[in-house]
Backbone:
């Protein structure tokens, strides 16, 4: 069937009208322009940390809670919040949010709000939609209100990814009904939704709203309304205020981030690395540091001598980094820029650090509450930042050492210069340039250089008479081993003709190798002295005087004033004088190096074998000692003749002499007692006998005896004299003993002077008697009692002991008196009894007479 023309036209018109109706029912599927424009998040910058900001003040009723900053500018009035000037509550701001009333931070936030408002208003619309947004599901983009106002009743759904942006523009108002909801799906973020409102915004009671309101004028919230976003009022109009009533407003922040690293993750000890700390801010708004960011370096790591600290973060205030300190600080006056176009904002802090010891050092910035290292207006860092610095010991550069052996020589003599090259690295070191040692003026290579080296592939150049010795490049110093550094040496003989001290130096860097250069200079000194002549001899006996058969020690001293040791080229033999012999116990010894002494008991020679060494010095000396004796008294001269001492430093041309005196032992002290006893008894008996011859028949004749006895007895007298021969003079008292201290008592002074004088008298006397010694003893006891110094008493006692040795009290011998009359055989004289009686009577009479005479 063929339709009429009018019917066909009616069907076509119905299709067009239906398409229009469908388009009007689904505005999101139709573009306002031919090409959809991508929405761009307006930069909130300083306003981003605020949950609520206004131009003409903030008023609150009920327990409103804010997560984010609260501020107003230029009007400072805020009521209904704790922490404000009024501090009247019941509303409060959660940490780390802050309150800013007409201050610089609030002003900066207002200025950022103005810029963000104008940015949003100027973005070209992707879609022009009807006023009522409730019930719609909108994709990311820029939406413009066809009527100049937006209203939400029911639920508005925004579906997109976490980096997608929605911008809603209205020339007039934004009004949401009570209990209305703005919901996000697909990962969309409330911080990426922006409502640019030309006049006022009103959110209904108990409504749930998501996004940032950038109102030209004021914002009003009904009781119980919840906002995940920001209420930013007064973008252009300074009368813009915010009114709240028991609401919850949470600024949608993403925690800032921290990262760190060392530019050179591995350095040698004492080297420098640059530490970089990166602060990230995923939010579109600026993040302000609310406390300084302090990075405490691990123990052993410090700020380098040249810190070179800097930052790219916004705000003001220098990075605090003191050379040698263990921390670096970014002040709280700094900010982290906001993100843009889905990219986080970031800034850095850098500082040079160093470490003296090898090791692995881990540097951490914590994220553990409440010790988060980074605290900002957008919250703290949610993750820790860790970086590791490895410090290793540098490969050891080779070193140098040098010396002269011997270090002191006579003019014209030879010393050997030795240069030692050491390598502590486990790899061999190859000389990359020649090592040249320039000798000091006055020192030259000897006529016989004997130059050589132990360095691998080494070539030494040293010309006789020249002043340099060179080790060619390419020589190899061996690697270090288990036993220590690898070493090699260069040696050459040198000499000098003038006395003086010559310092030979190799500068730092003189040794250049594949393992580095010597860091420090090295020096050695050669001393040249005038020739000192050959070694000398001297000798002596100790003691110089002995008694017959006694012992003295003979010492021969060998001296060498040369700077080099002298070696005996022939034996040194000392022939003792006739009458002196090696003691039965020779005790022969020497201090001469490698010396061997021969001295046989009873012989007359002592010998130091060739090869013995006299040390060098000023002078250096050594000795030969042996015990000798002499059996007979006499004076004995011992001589080492000229040319006896022959050494590598020359032969001594002179004799050395010493004298030993041998004396007879002193006579022992003698004592003589001469008792004298006289007894002269005289007895005279003159009997008178008258005898008449007997006739025959006559009686026996009568004998008449008239004895006369005279006895004379002299008294017995004893005389004893002790004579002692004193020993050689002994010192009386120590020097000064005869002059007592000035503060001594008079008795002390007198006693000391008497003691001194009496000792001197006895030492000069021919004889010392027992009485002398007794008197001397009394004087010493008296001085001691008067508290004379102990040293004086001791010296006096020693002198007395020496003077009085062997002297004792003499014994008295009384001779026996013989009988008055001798007896002959066994017969007694017939008159002996009467004679004795008569003699006794006579002696008695004489005794009585003497007693009477004494009494009278």
Residues:
């Amino acid at each position: 069937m063929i339709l009429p023309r009018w019917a066909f036209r009616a069907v076509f018109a119905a299709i067009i009208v239906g398409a229009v109706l469908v388009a009007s029912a689904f505005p999101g599927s139709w573009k306002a322009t031919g090409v959809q424009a991508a929405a761009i998040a307006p930069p909130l910058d300083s306003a981003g940390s605020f949950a609520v900001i206004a131009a003409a003040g903030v008023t609150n009723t009920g327990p409103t809670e804010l997560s984010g900053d609260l501020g107003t500018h230029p009007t400072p009035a805020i009521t209904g919040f704790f922490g404000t000037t009024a501090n009247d509550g019941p509303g409060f701001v959660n940490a780390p949010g802050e309150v800013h009333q007409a201050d610089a931070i609030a002003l900066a936030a207002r200025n950022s709000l103005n810029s963000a408002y104008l940015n949003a208003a100027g973005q070209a619309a992707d879609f022009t939609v009807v006023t009522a947004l409730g019930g719609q599901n909108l994709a990311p983009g820029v939406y413009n209100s066809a009527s100049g106002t937006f209203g939400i009743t029911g639920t508005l759904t925004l579906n997109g990814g976490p980096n997608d942006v929605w911008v809603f523009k209205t020339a007039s108002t934004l009004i949401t009904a009570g209990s209305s909801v703005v919901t996000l799906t697909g990962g969309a973020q409330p911080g990426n939704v922006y409502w640019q409102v030309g006049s006022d915004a009103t959110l209904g009671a108990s409504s749930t709203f998501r996004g940032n309101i950038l109102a030209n004028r004021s914002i009003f919230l009904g009781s119980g309304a919840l906002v995940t976003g920001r209420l930013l009022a007064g973008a252009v109009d300074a009368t813009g205020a915010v009114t709240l009533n028991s609401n919850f407003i949470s600024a949608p922040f993403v925690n800032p981030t921290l990262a760190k690293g060392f530019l050179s993750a591995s350095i040698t000890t004492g080297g420098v690395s640059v530490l970089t700390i990166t602060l990230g801010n995923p939010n579109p708004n600026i993040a302000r540091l609310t406390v300084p960011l302090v990075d405490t370096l691990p123990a052993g790591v410090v700020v380098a001598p040249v810190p070179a600290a800097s930052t790219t973060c916004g705000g003001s205030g220098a990075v605090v980094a003191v050379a040698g300190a263990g921390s670096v600080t970014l002040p709280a006056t700094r900010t982290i820029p906001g993100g843009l176009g889905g990219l986080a904002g970031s800034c850095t802090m850098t500082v040079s650090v160093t470490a003296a010891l090898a090791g692995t050092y881990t540097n951490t910035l914590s994220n553990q509450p409440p010790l988060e290292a980074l605290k900002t207006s957008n919250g703290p860092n949610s993750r820790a930042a860790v970086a590791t610095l490895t410090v290793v010991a540098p490969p050891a550069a080779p070193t140098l050492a040098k010396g002269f052996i011997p270090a002191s020589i006579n003019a014209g003599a030879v010393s050997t210069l030795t240069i030692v090259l050491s390598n502590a690295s486990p790899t061999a070191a190859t000389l990359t340039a020649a090592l040249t040692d320039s000798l000091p003026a006055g020192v030259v290579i000897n006529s016989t250089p004997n130059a050589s080296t132990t360095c691998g592939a080494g070539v030494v150049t040293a010309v006789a008479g020249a002043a340099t010795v060179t080790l060619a490049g390419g020589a190899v110093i061996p690697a270090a081993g288990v036993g220590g550094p690898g070493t090699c040496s260069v040696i050459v003989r040198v000499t000098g003709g003038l006395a003086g001290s010559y310092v030979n130096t190799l500068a730092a860097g003189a040794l250049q190798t594949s393992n580095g250069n010597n860091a420090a200079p090295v020096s050695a000194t050669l001393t040249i002295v005038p020739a000192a002549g050959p070694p000398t001899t001297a000798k002596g006996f100790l003691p110089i005087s002995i008694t017959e058969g006694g012992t003295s020690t003979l010492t021969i001293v060998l001296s060498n004033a040369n700077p080099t040791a002298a070696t005996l080229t022939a034996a040194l033999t000392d022939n003792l004088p006739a009458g002196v012999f090696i003691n039965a116990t020779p005790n022969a010894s020497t201090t001469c190096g490698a010396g061997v002494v021969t001295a046989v008991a009873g012989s007359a020679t002592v010998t130091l074998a060739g090869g013995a060494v006299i040390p060098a010095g000023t002078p250096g000396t050594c000795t030969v000692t042996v015990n000798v004796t002499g059996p007979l008294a006499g004076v004995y001269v011992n001589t080492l003749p000229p040319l006896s001492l022959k050494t590598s430093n020359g032969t001594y041309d002179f004799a050395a002499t010493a004298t030993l005196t041998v004396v007879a032992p002193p006579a022992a002290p003698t004592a003589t007692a001469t008792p004298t006893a006289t007894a002269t008894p005289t007895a005279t008996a003159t009997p008178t006998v008258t005898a008449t011859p007997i006739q025959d028949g006559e009686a026996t004749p009568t004998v008449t005896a008239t004895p006369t006895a005279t006895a004379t007895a002299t008294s017995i007298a004893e005389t004893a004299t002790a004579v002692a021969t004193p020993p050689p003079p002994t010192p009386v008292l120590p020097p000064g003993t005869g002059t007592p201290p000035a503060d001594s008592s008079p008795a002390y002074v007198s006693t000391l002077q008497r003691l001194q004088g009496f000792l001197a008298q006895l030492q000069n006397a021919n004889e010392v008697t027992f009485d002398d010694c007794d008197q001397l003893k009394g004087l010493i006891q008296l001085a001691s009692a008067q508290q004379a110094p102990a040293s004086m008493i001791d010296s006096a006692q020693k002198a007395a002991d020496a003077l009085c040795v062997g002297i004792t009290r003499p014994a008295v011998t009384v001779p026996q008196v013989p009988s008055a009359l001798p007896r002959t055989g066994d017969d007694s004289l017939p008159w002996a009894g009467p004679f004795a009686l008569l003699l006794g009577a006579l002696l008695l009479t004489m005794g009585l007479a003497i007693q009477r005479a004494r009494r009278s």
Notes: DSSP finds six helices and 67 strands in the chain.
